[in-house]
Amino acid sequence: MDEGSPGGDGRESCAPLRLAIVAGSTIAFAPLPPRGSVVLGREEGCDVRIDDRSVSRRHAALHVGPPLRVEDLGSANGTFVGEQQLPAVTARTHRLRRLSRESAEIVVGERFNLGATTVVVGRAPVGPAVEPDRGHAPEDVVVRAPAMVALYEQAARAARSPISVLILGETGVGKEVLARTLHARSPRASGPYVELHCAALPPSLLEGELFGHEKSAFTGASQARPGLIESADGGTLFLDEIGELPLAFQVKLLRVLEDRKVLRLGGRTPRRVDLRFVAATNRDLEAEIARGAFRQDLYFRLNGISLVVPPLRERRDEIAPLARKFLEEACRHLDQRGAPRISPDALGVLEAYSWPGNVRELRNVIERAAVLCAGESVLP
Protein backbone atom coordinates (compact mmCIF):
# COMPACT_ATOMS: atom_id res chain seq x y z
CA MET A 1 0.00 0.00 0.00
CA ASP A 2 1.49 3.34 -0.95
CA GLU A 3 1.44 6.45 1.16
CA GLY A 4 -1.65 7.86 -0.45
CA SER A 5 -3.69 4.69 -0.19
CA PRO A 6 -6.53 4.62 2.28
CA GLY A 7 -6.39 1.88 4.86
CA GLY A 8 -8.44 0.58 7.74
CA ASP A 9 -10.73 3.18 9.23
CA GLY A 10 -8.96 6.14 7.64
CA ARG A 11 -6.73 6.83 10.61
CA GLU A 12 -4.24 4.03 9.98
CA SER A 13 -3.22 5.29 6.52
CA CYS A 14 -2.33 8.60 8.19
CA ALA A 15 -0.44 6.93 11.03
CA PRO A 16 3.24 7.82 11.39
CA LEU A 17 5.73 5.65 9.57
CA ARG A 18 8.12 3.36 11.39
CA LEU A 19 10.72 0.73 10.57
CA ALA A 20 10.44 -2.90 11.58
CA ILE A 21 13.99 -4.25 11.84
CA VAL A 22 14.67 -7.99 11.99
CA ALA A 23 18.24 -8.82 12.98
CA GLY A 24 18.81 -12.48 13.80
CA SER A 25 16.01 -13.66 16.09
CA THR A 26 15.05 -10.20 17.33
CA ILE A 27 12.65 -7.61 15.97
CA ALA A 28 12.77 -3.92 16.85
CA PHE A 29 10.87 -0.83 15.75
CA ALA A 30 12.13 2.68 15.03
CA PRO A 31 9.94 5.73 14.29
CA LEU A 32 10.47 7.73 11.10
CA PRO A 33 10.08 11.49 10.62
CA PRO A 34 7.26 12.78 8.36
CA ARG A 35 9.91 13.95 5.88
CA GLY A 36 13.68 13.98 5.53
CA SER A 37 16.40 11.35 5.56
CA VAL A 38 17.61 8.88 8.16
CA VAL A 39 20.88 6.98 8.10
CA LEU A 40 20.87 3.30 9.04
CA GLY A 41 24.02 1.58 10.20
CA ARG A 42 26.05 0.05 12.99
CA GLU A 43 27.83 3.12 14.36
CA GLU A 44 26.55 5.17 17.28
CA GLY A 45 25.97 8.32 15.23
CA CYS A 46 23.40 6.75 12.89
CA ASP A 47 19.77 7.81 13.14
CA VAL A 48 18.77 4.15 13.29
CA ARG A 49 21.44 1.96 14.84
CA ILE A 50 21.43 -1.74 13.92
CA ASP A 51 23.56 -4.07 16.02
CA ASP A 52 24.46 -6.60 13.33
CA ARG A 53 28.01 -7.24 12.12
CA SER A 54 26.77 -7.74 8.55
CA VAL A 55 25.59 -4.10 8.57
CA SER A 56 28.19 -1.45 7.73
CA ARG A 57 28.90 1.46 10.04
CA ARG A 58 26.94 3.79 7.72
CA HIS A 59 25.11 1.32 5.55
CA ALA A 60 22.15 3.04 3.88
CA ALA A 61 19.94 6.11 3.92
CA LEU A 62 16.16 6.09 3.81
CA HIS A 63 14.65 9.20 2.26
CA VAL A 64 11.11 9.81 3.50
CA GLY A 65 9.11 11.50 0.77
CA PRO A 66 6.87 10.85 -0.88
CA PRO A 67 8.31 8.99 -2.57
CA LEU A 68 10.17 6.66 -0.22
CA ARG A 69 13.70 5.88 -1.43
CA VAL A 70 16.41 3.67 0.03
CA GLU A 71 20.00 4.53 -0.90
CA ASP A 72 23.10 2.41 -0.40
CA LEU A 73 25.99 4.37 1.12
CA GLY A 74 28.78 2.15 -0.16
CA SER A 75 28.15 -0.71 2.25
CA ALA A 76 30.36 -3.79 2.36
CA ASN A 77 27.57 -6.38 2.20
CA GLY A 78 25.10 -4.53 0.04
CA THR A 79 21.55 -3.23 0.20
CA PHE A 80 18.92 -5.41 -1.42
CA VAL A 81 15.45 -4.31 -2.48
CA GLY A 82 12.74 -6.93 -2.77
CA GLU A 83 10.53 -7.13 -5.84
CA GLN A 84 7.42 -9.31 -5.61
CA GLN A 85 5.69 -10.60 -8.74
CA LEU A 86 2.58 -12.66 -9.35
CA PRO A 87 3.37 -15.01 -12.26
CA ALA A 88 0.96 -17.19 -14.17
CA VAL A 89 1.14 -19.89 -11.50
CA THR A 90 -0.40 -19.26 -8.10
CA ALA A 91 2.79 -19.04 -6.02
CA ARG A 92 4.51 -15.67 -5.69
CA THR A 93 8.23 -15.42 -6.31
CA HIS A 94 10.68 -13.13 -4.55
CA ARG A 95 13.67 -11.57 -6.29
CA LEU A 96 16.32 -9.33 -4.81
CA ARG A 97 18.16 -6.56 -6.62
CA ARG A 98 21.40 -5.35 -5.10
CA LEU A 99 21.97 -1.63 -4.84
CA SER A 100 25.51 -0.29 -5.02
CA ARG A 101 25.81 3.44 -4.35
CA GLU A 102 22.41 3.98 -5.92
CA SER A 103 18.85 4.36 -4.71
CA ALA A 104 15.56 2.64 -5.38
CA GLU A 105 12.00 3.71 -4.75
CA ILE A 106 9.97 1.58 -2.34
CA VAL A 107 6.43 1.63 -0.96
CA VAL A 108 5.05 1.23 2.53
CA GLY A 109 4.97 -2.47 3.37
CA GLU A 110 7.91 -3.38 1.11
CA ARG A 111 10.99 -4.94 2.63
CA PHE A 112 14.66 -4.41 1.92
CA ASN A 113 17.82 -6.00 3.29
CA LEU A 114 20.94 -4.44 4.77
CA GLY A 115 23.38 -7.32 4.78
CA ALA A 116 21.63 -10.04 6.78
CA THR A 117 19.16 -7.63 8.42
CA THR A 118 15.65 -7.26 7.02
CA VAL A 119 13.88 -3.90 7.22
CA VAL A 120 10.25 -3.06 6.43
CA VAL A 121 8.68 0.38 6.31
CA GLY A 122 5.29 0.18 8.01
CA ARG A 123 2.97 2.32 10.08
CA ALA A 124 2.77 2.60 13.84
CA PRO A 125 -0.37 1.15 15.45
CA VAL A 126 -3.18 3.64 15.87
CA GLY A 127 -5.58 3.32 18.77
CA PRO A 128 -9.13 4.66 18.80
CA ALA A 129 -9.47 8.41 19.03
CA VAL A 130 -10.69 8.52 22.62
CA GLU A 131 -9.92 10.30 25.84
CA PRO A 132 -7.23 8.96 28.19
CA ASP A 133 -7.06 5.22 28.70
CA ARG A 134 -9.91 3.82 30.77
CA GLY A 135 -8.59 0.28 30.73
CA HIS A 136 -11.35 -1.46 28.77
CA ALA A 137 -10.44 -5.09 28.29
CA PRO A 138 -9.70 -6.02 24.68
CA GLU A 139 -12.68 -7.59 22.95
CA ASP A 140 -10.45 -10.08 21.15
CA VAL A 141 -8.80 -11.68 24.18
CA VAL A 142 -8.20 -15.33 23.29
CA VAL A 143 -9.60 -17.60 26.00
CA ARG A 144 -9.93 -21.21 24.83
CA ALA A 145 -8.08 -23.51 27.24
CA PRO A 146 -10.20 -24.83 30.14
CA ALA A 147 -7.73 -23.39 32.68
CA MET A 148 -8.08 -19.93 31.11
CA VAL A 149 -11.87 -20.16 30.96
CA ALA A 150 -11.91 -20.97 34.68
CA LEU A 151 -9.43 -18.17 35.39
CA TYR A 152 -11.50 -15.51 33.62
CA GLU A 153 -14.66 -16.71 35.34
CA GLN A 154 -12.87 -16.33 38.68
CA ALA A 155 -11.61 -12.90 37.60
CA ALA A 156 -15.16 -11.80 36.73
CA ARG A 157 -16.30 -12.67 40.25
CA ALA A 158 -13.30 -10.94 41.84
CA ALA A 159 -13.85 -7.84 39.71
CA ARG A 160 -17.19 -7.11 41.37
CA SER A 161 -15.61 -6.71 44.82
CA PRO A 162 -13.22 -3.96 46.02
CA ILE A 163 -10.69 -6.52 47.25
CA SER A 164 -7.04 -6.24 46.18
CA VAL A 165 -5.91 -8.79 43.60
CA LEU A 166 -2.47 -10.35 43.13
CA ILE A 167 -1.85 -11.81 39.66
CA LEU A 168 0.85 -14.47 39.47
CA GLY A 169 2.49 -16.04 36.44
CA GLU A 170 5.61 -16.36 34.36
CA THR A 171 6.94 -13.51 32.25
CA GLY A 172 4.84 -12.87 29.16
CA VAL A 173 1.75 -14.93 30.05
CA GLY A 174 -0.72 -12.03 29.87
CA LYS A 175 -0.94 -10.66 33.41
CA GLU A 176 -1.48 -7.09 32.19
CA VAL A 177 -4.39 -8.19 29.96
CA LEU A 178 -6.02 -9.84 32.96
CA ALA A 179 -5.51 -6.70 35.06
CA ARG A 180 -7.31 -4.62 32.42
CA THR A 181 -10.13 -7.15 32.38
CA LEU A 182 -10.51 -6.87 36.15
CA HIS A 183 -10.85 -3.11 35.83
CA ALA A 184 -13.22 -3.24 32.86
CA ARG A 185 -15.59 -5.64 34.63
CA SER A 186 -15.52 -3.79 37.95
CA PRO A 187 -17.85 -1.06 39.26
CA ARG A 188 -14.85 1.26 38.73
CA ALA A 189 -14.76 0.69 34.96
CA SER A 190 -15.67 4.32 34.23
CA GLY A 191 -12.78 5.52 36.40
CA PRO A 192 -9.10 5.76 35.46
CA TYR A 193 -6.88 2.74 34.90
CA VAL A 194 -3.28 3.58 35.80
CA GLU A 195 -0.24 1.34 35.37
CA LEU A 196 3.21 1.41 36.95
CA HIS A 197 5.99 -1.01 36.04
CA CYS A 198 7.86 -1.15 39.33
CA ALA A 199 11.16 -2.16 37.70
CA ALA A 200 11.06 0.54 35.02
CA LEU A 201 12.07 3.51 37.18
CA PRO A 202 15.14 4.05 39.37
CA PRO A 203 14.46 4.59 43.09
CA SER A 204 15.33 8.28 42.72
CA LEU A 205 12.31 8.79 40.45
CA LEU A 206 9.97 6.12 41.76
CA GLU A 207 8.79 7.96 44.88
CA GLY A 208 7.78 11.12 43.04
CA GLU A 209 6.10 9.12 40.29
CA LEU A 210 4.07 7.05 42.74
CA PHE A 211 3.28 9.59 45.47
CA GLY A 212 3.56 12.92 43.63
CA HIS A 213 5.15 16.09 45.01
CA GLU A 214 4.33 19.59 46.14
CA LYS A 215 5.76 22.74 44.60
CA SER A 216 9.41 23.32 45.62
CA ALA A 217 9.63 19.83 47.16
CA PHE A 218 13.00 19.49 45.43
CA THR A 219 15.15 21.38 42.96
CA GLY A 220 13.23 21.77 39.72
CA ALA A 221 9.77 21.16 41.22
CA SER A 222 8.27 24.37 39.86
CA GLN A 223 4.71 23.20 40.41
CA ALA A 224 2.82 20.57 42.36
CA ARG A 225 2.06 17.28 40.63
CA PRO A 226 -0.11 14.36 41.73
CA GLY A 227 1.42 10.90 41.65
CA LEU A 228 0.02 7.76 40.09
CA ILE A 229 -1.82 6.81 43.28
CA GLU A 230 -3.80 10.05 43.21
CA SER A 231 -4.27 9.77 39.45
CA ALA A 232 -5.97 6.40 39.98
CA ASP A 233 -8.49 7.85 42.46
CA GLY A 234 -11.90 6.39 41.64
CA GLY A 235 -10.37 3.66 39.50
CA THR A 236 -7.65 1.00 39.50
CA LEU A 237 -3.89 1.16 40.04
CA PHE A 238 -2.01 -1.74 38.44
CA LEU A 239 1.44 -2.35 39.93
CA ASP A 240 3.29 -4.60 37.51
CA GLU A 241 6.31 -6.55 38.77
CA ILE A 242 5.54 -5.65 42.38
CA GLY A 243 8.31 -8.01 43.48
CA GLU A 244 10.85 -5.49 42.14
CA LEU A 245 9.65 -2.68 44.43
CA PRO A 246 12.47 -1.62 46.80
CA LEU A 247 11.86 -2.29 50.49
CA ALA A 248 11.88 1.42 51.35
CA PHE A 249 8.87 1.99 49.08
CA GLN A 250 7.09 -1.14 50.26
CA VAL A 251 6.62 0.50 53.68
CA LYS A 252 5.10 3.63 52.13
CA LEU A 253 2.83 1.63 49.83
CA LEU A 254 1.64 -0.45 52.79
CA ARG A 255 0.66 2.75 54.59
CA VAL A 256 -1.46 3.83 51.62
CA LEU A 257 -3.15 0.42 51.48
CA GLU A 258 -3.98 0.58 55.18
CA ASP A 259 -4.97 4.25 55.55
CA ARG A 260 -6.21 5.01 52.02
CA LYS A 261 -4.28 8.27 52.21
CA VAL A 262 -1.26 9.48 50.26
CA LEU A 263 1.30 12.08 51.28
CA ARG A 264 3.07 13.90 48.46
CA LEU A 265 6.78 14.60 48.63
CA GLY A 266 7.20 17.89 50.47
CA GLY A 267 3.60 17.76 51.67
CA ARG A 268 2.24 17.97 55.20
CA THR A 269 -1.37 16.90 54.80
CA PRO A 270 -2.23 13.43 53.51
CA ARG A 271 -4.86 13.25 50.76
CA ARG A 272 -7.61 10.65 50.89
CA VAL A 273 -7.83 8.30 47.90
CA ASP A 274 -10.37 5.70 46.83
CA LEU A 275 -8.89 3.15 44.47
CA ARG A 276 -8.49 -0.55 43.85
CA PHE A 277 -5.03 -2.12 43.85
CA VAL A 278 -4.09 -4.87 41.41
CA ALA A 279 -0.51 -6.15 41.50
CA ALA A 280 1.36 -8.70 39.40
CA THR A 281 4.65 -10.54 39.64
CA ASN A 282 6.57 -13.44 38.17
CA ARG A 283 8.45 -13.92 41.44
CA ASP A 284 7.70 -16.34 44.27
CA LEU A 285 6.81 -13.70 46.86
CA GLU A 286 6.73 -16.19 49.72
CA ALA A 287 10.34 -17.08 48.92
CA GLU A 288 11.15 -13.36 48.71
CA ILE A 289 9.61 -12.89 52.15
CA ALA A 290 11.72 -15.74 53.54
CA ARG A 291 14.92 -14.09 52.36
CA GLY A 292 13.87 -10.65 53.59
CA ALA A 293 13.35 -9.03 50.17
CA PHE A 294 9.58 -8.52 50.45
CA ARG A 295 7.43 -7.45 53.38
CA GLN A 296 5.01 -10.07 54.63
CA ASP A 297 2.46 -7.48 55.77
CA LEU A 298 2.40 -5.90 52.30
CA TYR A 299 1.98 -9.34 50.76
CA PHE A 300 -1.07 -10.00 52.94
CA ARG A 301 -2.56 -6.63 51.97
CA LEU A 302 -2.06 -7.16 48.25
CA ASN A 303 -3.08 -10.81 48.23
CA GLY A 304 -6.78 -10.36 48.92
CA ILE A 305 -7.30 -12.90 46.17
CA SER A 306 -4.65 -14.41 43.91
CA LEU A 307 -5.13 -15.31 40.26
CA VAL A 308 -2.57 -17.54 38.56
CA VAL A 309 -2.17 -17.22 34.78
CA PRO A 310 -0.98 -20.55 33.34
CA PRO A 311 2.00 -20.59 30.95
CA LEU A 312 1.35 -20.92 27.23
CA ARG A 313 2.73 -24.48 27.15
CA GLU A 314 -0.25 -25.50 29.32
CA ARG A 315 -2.80 -23.84 27.00
CA ARG A 316 -1.82 -25.15 23.59
CA ASP A 317 -5.41 -24.76 22.34
CA GLU A 318 -4.73 -21.02 22.26
CA ILE A 319 -1.49 -21.06 20.26
CA ALA A 320 -3.11 -21.23 16.80
CA PRO A 321 -5.75 -18.50 17.37
CA LEU A 322 -3.18 -16.27 19.08
CA ALA A 323 -0.73 -16.75 16.19
CA ARG A 324 -3.40 -15.86 13.60
CA LYS A 325 -4.44 -12.81 15.61
CA PHE A 326 -0.86 -11.56 15.96
CA LEU A 327 -0.18 -12.16 12.26
CA GLU A 328 -3.21 -10.13 11.19
CA GLU A 329 -2.21 -7.30 13.53
CA ALA A 330 1.41 -7.31 12.33
CA CYS A 331 0.43 -7.27 8.65
CA ARG A 332 -2.02 -4.44 9.27
CA HIS A 333 0.67 -2.38 10.99
CA LEU A 334 3.06 -3.07 8.12
CA ASP A 335 0.41 -1.93 5.61
CA GLN A 336 0.41 -5.32 3.90
CA ARG A 337 -2.70 -5.90 1.83
CA GLY A 338 -3.56 -9.26 3.35
CA ALA A 339 -2.16 -11.57 5.97
CA PRO A 340 -0.62 -14.82 4.71
CA ARG A 341 -2.03 -18.02 6.11
CA ILE A 342 -0.05 -20.10 8.57
CA SER A 343 0.61 -23.49 7.02
CA PRO A 344 -0.39 -26.65 8.93
CA ASP A 345 3.30 -27.60 9.24
CA ALA A 346 4.12 -24.21 10.75
CA LEU A 347 1.22 -24.50 13.19
CA GLY A 348 2.51 -27.93 14.18
CA VAL A 349 5.92 -26.44 14.97
CA LEU A 350 4.35 -23.62 16.99
CA GLU A 351 2.17 -25.99 18.99
CA ALA A 352 5.06 -28.37 19.71
CA TYR A 353 7.37 -25.65 21.06
CA SER A 354 7.53 -25.05 24.83
CA TRP A 355 7.42 -21.19 24.65
CA PRO A 356 9.57 -20.22 27.65
CA GLY A 357 8.76 -16.57 26.86
CA ASN A 358 5.04 -17.38 26.63
CA VAL A 359 2.63 -15.14 24.71
CA ARG A 360 5.18 -12.33 24.42
CA GLU A 361 7.64 -14.68 22.69
CA LEU A 362 4.91 -15.99 20.37
CA ARG A 363 4.00 -12.44 19.35
CA ASN A 364 7.65 -11.66 18.62
CA VAL A 365 8.05 -14.78 16.46
CA ILE A 366 4.87 -14.02 14.49
CA GLU A 367 5.83 -10.36 13.95
CA ARG A 368 9.18 -11.54 12.62
CA ALA A 369 7.41 -14.00 10.31
CA ALA A 370 5.16 -11.21 9.01
CA VAL A 371 8.22 -9.17 8.07
CA LEU A 372 10.11 -12.03 6.42
CA CYS A 373 7.28 -13.90 4.70
CA ALA A 374 7.52 -13.44 0.92
CA GLY A 375 4.74 -15.79 -0.16
CA GLU A 376 1.13 -16.52 0.62
CA SER A 377 1.88 -18.92 3.49
CA VAL A 378 4.05 -18.86 6.59
CA LEU A 379 6.17 -22.00 6.42
CA PRO A 380 8.31 -23.65 9.13
From TrEMBL:
Pfam short name (any one)? FHA
Q: Does the keyword ATP-binding apply?
A: yes
Answer yes or no on keyword Cytoplasm.
no
Which keywords belong to this entry? ATP-binding, DNA-binding, Nucleotide-binding, Transcription, Transcription regulation
Tell me which residues make up the FHA domain: 38-86
Which terms in the Gene Ontology molecular function aspect does this entry carry?
ATP binding; DNA binding
In Swiss-Prot or TrEMBL terms, this protein is called Fis family transcriptional regulator
Q: Organism, per UniProt?
A: Sorangium cellulosum (Polyangium cellulosum)
